[in-house]
Structure formats: C-alpha cells, structure tokens
Specification:
heterodimer, A: about 600 residues, mainly alpha, Sodium/glucose cotransporter, 2 domains, two-stranded antiparallel sheet, B: about 100 residues, two-stranded antiparallel ribbon, about 65% helix, elongated
Chain lengths: ~600, ~100
C-alpha cells in the first residue's frame, strides 16, 4: 500500500479509538471532570500519567536533541525522570490525602488565603500555556509532514480532536484515552528503535545495543561515534560542552519542575488511596522509563546514521561526501517542511556536514575546499525521519506518525484540563460566583477548555521557539513558583500565607524576568544569550533552580517575621501527613 | 465539595503521630541521598572520574547519566512505596 494511504489509515484509526473511548467514559459530574471520580486504578493511572507527561517534546524532539548534544542530553533524561522521585516522596501522597481537585485549591487552603490561590492560578496558567504552545507546535509539525497539509490546517485538525475529547470527557475521558495513547506512542517509539538497533549492532534491545559493538566489527558503537564526530570538528559524543554548573542547574530545574507541573500533580488526585498515589508514581516512571532509556540509544544511532549517510568516504577526500544528485528520498520529503536545508556553498555538488563554528576545524575544512557547513537538520525531525533514514518499511513510518500525534494530543489534553479547572474551579467558583451549581460549574469548565484550545492553537501557530526549548521554560517556572509552595505547605507547619505568597511571586518574577531578558518572548531580548552574560554561568534553561532557591529564601525570611498560621491550618497539615482517613470522592 | 476536616477539634484526644512522621522523614532523606548521589554525583559532578571505567561499550559516568540513574530512580520509588506501606501498618495509620 502507498505510504500516504497507510498513514491516513493508521492515524485515522487511532483518532477513532480515542474518540470512542472519550464518548464511552464522558464526565457526568465535576468530580469526574476534574479528577475522574478518584476511582482510577494505580497501573492505569501510571500509564495515563506517562502519556500525559510524555509530550511532543519527549517523543519528537528529545532523541534529536540528545543526538546533537551527546552527553549533555543527559540533562533531559535525568531531569525529566528524577522529578518522579521528588513527586513520589515529597508531594503525591500528601496531596492525595488532602483530597481536593486542583493545585491552587491546596495552596489556597493551606495558606488560608484567596490571594495565595490566585497567585497559584497565575503561575499555573503561565506554566501550562507555555507548555501547551510547545505541544501544538509539535502537532503542527507532525501533521504538515505526514498528512501533507500545511501547518495551519494541521493545527486546526489537532485542535478539533483535542477539543472533542477533553471538553466532553473531562479528566475521566482523557485518563482512559491517555491509556490508549500510551500504548500507541510507546509501540511507535520502540518498534523503529528495535529495527535500527538490530540493523546497526545486531542487538534488538536498544538500551543494550547502545553499548554494543557494531555489526561486522569489534568497535563499540559509542567509540566509533566519538571518532566520527570529532573527525568533523564536533565535541566527542560521550563528552559534554556545557559547563558543570549549567548541567547541574538545568537538571535541577527540570527535575523540580516536573514535580511542580500542575497537570502531572493532578493525576495523583485521581487514585483511590494514598498508598495508590505512591504506587502510581512507580508505574508512571516505569512506563516513562521505557521511552526514556530508549531515547538516548535512538539519539546515538540517528546521529551515526546521519553522518554516515553524508560522509560516505574519508574526511577531506574530494570524493568522500554524498553527491547531492544521489541524495536519498527523505531529503526532499523533509525539505518540503523547511526543517532540513541544503546549500552547496563550495559548488562541488556534494554535501558537507561539519562543525564550522569551531575555528581550528573550519581552517582545516577550508584546506579541503569546504566553504562552510552545507546541511542543517532541525533536531525536531530526527525521530520522525529516522525510519526513513534507516529505510524501514512503510507501516513503521505510519506508526511513528500516529505515535507523535498521540504524544502531543495526550499532553495537550491534560494541560487544557488543568487550565479549565483553574478557571472554573479556582477562579469562577471560589472567587467570583461562589453559589454556582455543579451543572453550571461543569459547563463553565467545558467553556474554559474550549477557549483554552483556541488560545493554545494560536500560540502553536506563533511559537516562541522550537518545541523542547519552549517546554523547558515551563519547567523553570514550575520549579521556581509552585513546587516550593507545595513542599513547604506539607513539610513546614510554620510556613505562613505571607511567606508563601512572597516566595511564589519572587520565584515567578525572577525566572520569568531572566527568561525574557535573554530570550525576549514578547519584546526583543535585552542581552545576547551567551555564557559570558549569564548569571553565575547558568543558562535560561537552568535558571528555575536558582528561582526555587530564591523562593525558599524569601519565603522563610518573610514568614519568620510574620504571624504563624492559625491552629486549624496547622491541624490540616498534621492530617495530610497521615494516610488514614483518605476518602474517595464516591463516599459522599 | 462537602468533605469534612479529618482531625477532631479537641487536641487532647488527637493521637500523636510524631514518631511516624520522624520515621517517614528519615526514610525520605535516605532515599533522596541515593537519588542525589546517583544522578548529580555519578552523572554530573564526578562524571569524568567515573568515565575512566567502562561497562561494555559505555564509559561508566556517561552510562549513569543516560541510563543508570533512571533505573536507580525506579528502584528507589518501588523501595519507598513498600517501606512506607510497612511503616503505615507498623504505626497503625494505614488506610483500612
């Protein structure tokens, strides 16, 4: 069957599946809409959390980024998994015991203050919209390549599907849809990885192939790769080029940010018991780890594949590079999306791919008659193009398309839901219209979700950067604002309203300010984004960790000079520390 | 929602859970120490030292950074969930 027909078939079938699940499990009450009635089995919740969590950035961009970053890519791998340890040990069980619907609700109750709740809503909206913009951009990329429509049409289709099941099904609908989406995306991710691992090393398990020797050779894959990239002037693959302090801070910002992301935290509100929240965190990480341990293998294999495709002979040999006229088909299919570009700078009709920003190597390259790097490949396409680069059968390519869409849709839906809950539950019901009926609140939640879908689509159309980078900022903001407030709310009985609000605002404004200073989201950047300009050598990606430290420092100082929290609040802190007495939403 | 506060109003009849909480904190700190050592220690701060050793084709520090730490995280959460369930039962604060 033709590739295009196959893709339509597989993607269409997956949409049909999600929509029928959403119809079968649509929400009837606000409890269903916000937390799926708190009746989700921990393993199912773990799977749904994994799909919710693994976004377009994880599926599409991460392996590509690792392929370019080499060792430095570990910041994403450790950062985006280590956060689950923090979640399981420090937040999830206690928040489940607290037993309400949203993260701002916890902050509002714990800090006995509507203002704290509203500050938390503002943080949540900043975080979630930054994140959802990245997802929508991911949806656009996948659609534009695989469905051969332009990015705008792709976005509109994606918005329509998310709209349908997030608005209709609420948390209950998206939870079970996400279980299905997890299965689709993990299958789509591992199948090509297994094929490619087998092709290149003879070992079908990517995690092991990564450390194996190459087919017909006794050279280890990583040693060979190190040699290939250093020959072309790049940093060795197993070596990093980021400074240690930057790697440290980025990892921390991503870890803590993961634990502070509202759409992840809220997933632990959906299980029946406190002990289930802990177990569920384990299952979530287990399902995530399948993809996250495969990704670095995919990254290494893809980098090698790409270089060997272009550098067909010895470096410096006039015949050593791929003739442009003999380029493989995927060059053209992806060039159409603008994500891969070739420019014959030295006019020899061949493709040179090397590190021309390294002055020493650029000089050597000039002696070969090379006039600069001629091939630019956007990291976002490596995973998607990988099956084509490796020449895998068409059904694998169709599967990857469906997987990429599943990853983006599941995360977008989870985010839209926390945004709508923040509007209908934390703003409308608690501040503006306290006597709204449950039906009214449910309707308001659905309307808020609908508006959020449209806004997200707009942001996806005008994205402030490429997918993984946009998403990385959401973590910084979460790490600096929500995580410390929740953590102190559980582990410090003395922390009070004044301290928490001051801390959250400091963390949020500092981090946001630093990001805008160097990246200029709305305005032009104020300073060049280079290590010489960074505070203590910490890049904007890692600044959330510093924001978190500031948050703690400000919160503890302010609370030391203000009144301790009232007795009922201290009793509430006592009570969330003890598992006994966690009720399900069905009990009343 | 109509949920009522869990703890009784009169503090004199409230059971004392401070031993349970201290035991929990000790467990959490132990787990976090391992979490820190594996990821930040082996994978970032001392990565060059560990890279002198190899397992298969991996330099060890690189392996910890890209594979090992994730596996250790998983084991840690499993251990914590089990140990906490035991602790809940031992201090009689588990969910019936």
């Amino acid at each position: 069957m033709a590739l295009q027909t196959l893709i339509y078939l597989v993607v269409g079938a997956s949409f049909l599946l999600y929509i029928s699940i959403a119809i079968a499990s649509r929400a009837n009450s606000t409890g269903d809409f916000y937390v799926a009635g708190k009746g989700v089995h921990p393993v199912a919740n773990g799977m749904a959390t994994a799909a919710d969590w693994m976004s377009a950035a994880s599926f599409i961009s991460m392996a590509g980024l690792i392929a370019y970053l080499g060792y430095d890519g570990a910041v994403y791998l450790m950062g985006w998994t280590g956060g689950y340890v923090l979640l399981a040990l420090l937040l999830a069980p206690y928040l489940r015991k607290f037993g309400k619907f949203t993260v701002p609700e916890f902050i509002g109750d714990r800090y006995y203050s509507q203002s704290a709740r509203i500050v938390a809503v503002i943080c949540l909206i900043f975080i979630s919209f930054t994140y959802v913009a990245g997802q929508m951009r991911g949806v656009g990329i996948v659609f534009s390549r695989f469905l051969e429509v332009d990015v705008t049409t792709g976005l509109l289709i994606g918005m329509a599907v998310v709209f349908f099941y997030a608005v209709l099904g609420g948390m209950k609908g998206i939870t079970y849809t996400q279980v299905a989406q997890y299965c689709v995306l993990i299958f789509a991710y591992t199948v090509p990885a297994v094929f490619i691992a087998l092709q290149m090393t003879g070992n079908p398990i990517p995690q092991l192939a990564f450390g194996s020797t190459l087919v017909d050779s006794s050279t280890y894959l990583l040693d060979h790769l190190d040699e290939l990239v250093t020959d072309l002037g790049f940093t060795a693959y197993t070596d990093g080029s980021k400074s240690t302090i930057d790697v440290f801070f980025i990892t921390t910002a991503l870890m803590v940010g993961t634990a502070g992301l509202p759409h992840v935290i809220v997933r632990f509100f959906t299980v029946p018991k406190v002990s289930d929240a802990r177990r569920s965190a384990f299952w979530a990480l287990a399902f995530i780890a399948i993809l996250y341990t495969t990704a670095p293998a995919v990254g290494a294999l893809a980098r090698m594949n790409l270089i060997e495709t272009v550098q067909t002979g010895p470096v410096g040999d006039p015949e050593g590079n791929l003739l442009f006229s003999e380029r493989p088909d995927w060059f053209d299919t992806w060039a159409a999306t603008g994500l891969i570009a070739f420019e014959d700078r030295n006019g020899d009709g061949r493709v040179q791919y090397y590190n021309d920003s390294d002055p020493a190597f650029a000089e050597r390259a000039a002696s070969y008659g090379w006039a600069g790097n001629e091939l630019t490949v956007d990291p976002d396409i490596l995973v998607l193009a990988n099956p084509e680069i490796a020449g895998l059968p068409n059904w694998v390519i169709a599967l990857v398309a469906a997987g990429g869409i599943a990853a983006a849709l599941s995360t977008a839906a989870g985010l839209l839901l926390v945004i709508s809950a923040a509007f209908s539950h934390d703003l409308l019901k608690s501040v503006f219209w306290k006597r709204i009926s449950e039906r009214g609140e449910l309707l308001a939640g659905r309307c808020a979700a609908a508006v959020a879908v449209c806004l997200a689509g707009y942001l996806g159309y005008n994205p402030p950067g490429f997918v993984a980078q946009v998403v990385a900022f959401a973590f910084g903001l979460a790490a600096a604002s929500l995580f410390p407030a929740i953590l102190m709310g559980i582990f410090s009985k003395r922390m009070n309203r004044e301290g928490a609000i001051a801390g959250m605002l400091t963390g949020l404004l500092f981090t946001l300010g630093y990001l805008i200073w160097f990246k200029g989201v709305i305005i032009e950047p104020m300073a060049a984004d280079i290590p010489e300009n960074w505070l203590f050598g910490i890049s904007p990606e890692g600044i959330g960790a510093l924001g978190m430290l500031l948050n703690f420092a400000v919160a503890f100082s302010v609370s030391a000079f203000t009144q301790p929290p009232p007795a009922p609040v201290q009793d509430m802190v006592e009570s969330i520390r003890i598992p006994r007495g966690a009720k399900t939403a069905r009990a009343h | 929602m109509t949920e009522k506060p869990e703890s009784p109003k009169d503090p004199s009849i409230r059971p004392d859970h401070s031993d349970y909480w201290r035991a929990n904190l000790r467990l959490v700190l132990r787990c976090l120490a391992i979490w820190f050592l594996v990821s930040y220690g082996c994978g970032i701060l001392f990565v060059d030292f560990f890279n002198q050793f190899r397992i298969g084709g991996f330099p060890l520090g690189f392996w910890f950074a890209q594979q090992g730490s994730i596996l250790v995280f998983l084991v840690l959460i499993a251990y914590y969930a089990r140990a906490m369930s035991r602790l809940d039962r031992a201090f009689d604060v588990d969910e019936e």
